[in-house]
Amino acid sequence: MTKLKQITGNIASPKGFTADATHAELKFQKLDLGMILSQVPAAVAGVFTTNKVAAAPVILDKEVVAGGLAQAIITNSAIANAVTGEAGMNNARKTQRLLADKFGLLPGHVAVCSTGVIGRQLPMDKIALGISKLSAENGHAAGFAQAILTTDLVEKEVAYQVELGGQTITVAGVCKGSGMIHPNMATMLAFITTDANIAQPLLQATLSEVIETTFNQITVDGDTSTNDTVLVLANGMAGNAELVADSEDYLTFKSVLATVCQTMAKQIAADGEGATKLIEVTVTGAPDELTARMIAKHIVGSSLVKTAIFGADPNWGRVISAIGQVAPFEVPDIELTIQNDLVLLHSTAVDFDQAELSEKLKEKNVVIEADLNQGDKTGTAWGCDLTYKYVEINALYHS
């Protein structure tokens, strides 16, 4: 398989894409309105929240994805436009029309996303003024990553290139997410652009598959948002031959897309509200991948495990308890390592240096590996520790 190359770039790095961001006064000073624009209509794929209280933009974007083509994405932060009734739906459609009119697009080719406080209506005068400031020629592409943030502390971007059929294709991603993270999917928005040539049905199938082992394997606090959205635009401007399912070029593209999604998923987990550590849990020796992924995600989502990691407490009993809560079979032969230290063998405690392991648990990245010895399948999940700061942020969040 062709080697992937990570590049320094942003969401506008693939051929034919531009992006811009502006301050629409939804926030006090920071950028809060962003746009991604393709020179030509692009195949569009999307995966959305499973929360039954879906925000107006989610409902609208499902329509856009069903149409198969999109040429732009417009996103605001600060206000989620969720639980806003008919007025909220009308405002989402008006936002769609405003951007379409400005750039000469079909309204149905514009996806709309929002993130922020639930229950507030969008101030459409400010949205309209903000859209009027956006530019396709002189856009502030790097600012898009900032414009979509809420409680995030860092911007989250990634870009990769690979050669397909003699042509260099680029896949770039940008996302936001910090709290209310428990995919299917998370309180997250993720946008991916690519200049690869791929038909919409295959793009949708590929995204839906990749999501399961990337964004759907992160958790911060166990809550699923009303606005979760992942959108991919593929405009075909790299000039490669259309990708065919199961071909070598297609499998390479799928690998790049999975890498972009996994990188962003880990960035979100590491930037969880109040987090000080990224936790990675890998479960091996499972009879099937779903079981491995389910157990890994339950471990990383356990409040007891998360608080132990925050306190650098090598309390492996919390990990075993988490496994036993969700394993669909008896697990009498578990091997458990934490930060590469073996703490359990054949489901029996072994001697280890607790003080030394406690020091290792103070590191920024914590790795837990559990071998169930019940098969040959593997699953990985990512999350973060649970801190005093998380409580503080969410006790005060309503802005």
TrEMBL record:
The keyword Disulfide bond appears for this protein: no
Site (Involved in the stabilization of negative charge on the oxyanion by the formation of the oxyanion hole): 115-116
Biological process terms in GO annotation: L-arginine biosynthetic process; ornithine biosynthetic process
EC numbers: 2.3.1.35, 2.3.1.1
Gene3D superfamilies cross-referenced by the UniProt entry: arginine biosynthesis bifunctional protein suprefamily, ArgJ beta chain, C-terminal domain, L-amino peptidase D-ALA esterase/amidase
Pfam families linked: ArgJ
GO molecular function, one term: L-glutamate N-acetyltransferase activity, acting on acetyl-L-ornithine as donor
Site residues by UniProt (Cleavage): 186-187
Keywords annotated in UniProt: Acyltransferase, Amino-acid biosynthesis, Arginine biosynthesis, Autocatalytic cleavage, Cytoplasm, Multifunctional enzyme, Transferase
Catalysed reactions, semicolon-separated: L-glutamate + acetyl-CoA = N-acetyl-L-glutamate + CoA + H(+); N(2)-acetyl-L-ornithine + L-glutamate = N-acetyl-L-glutamate + L-ornithine
Stored SUPFAM superfamilies: DmpA/ArgJ-like (SSF56266)
Active site: 187 (nucleophile)
Binding site for substrate: 150, 176, 187, 273, 394, 399
InterPro entries per the UniProt record, alphabetical: Arg_biosynth_ArgJ, ArgJ-like_dom_sf, ArgJ_beta_C
Predominant localisation class: cytoplasm
Subcellular location, record wording: Cytoplasm
Entry's family note: Belongs to the ArgJ family.
Function: Catalyzes two activities which are involved in the cyclic version of arginine biosynthesis: the synthesis of N-acetylglutamate from glutamate and acetyl-CoA as the acetyl donor, and of ornithine by transacetylation between N(2)-acetylornithine and glutamate.
Name used for this protein in its record: Arginine biosynthesis bifunctional protein ArgJ
Name of the gene encoding the protein in the UniProt record: argJ
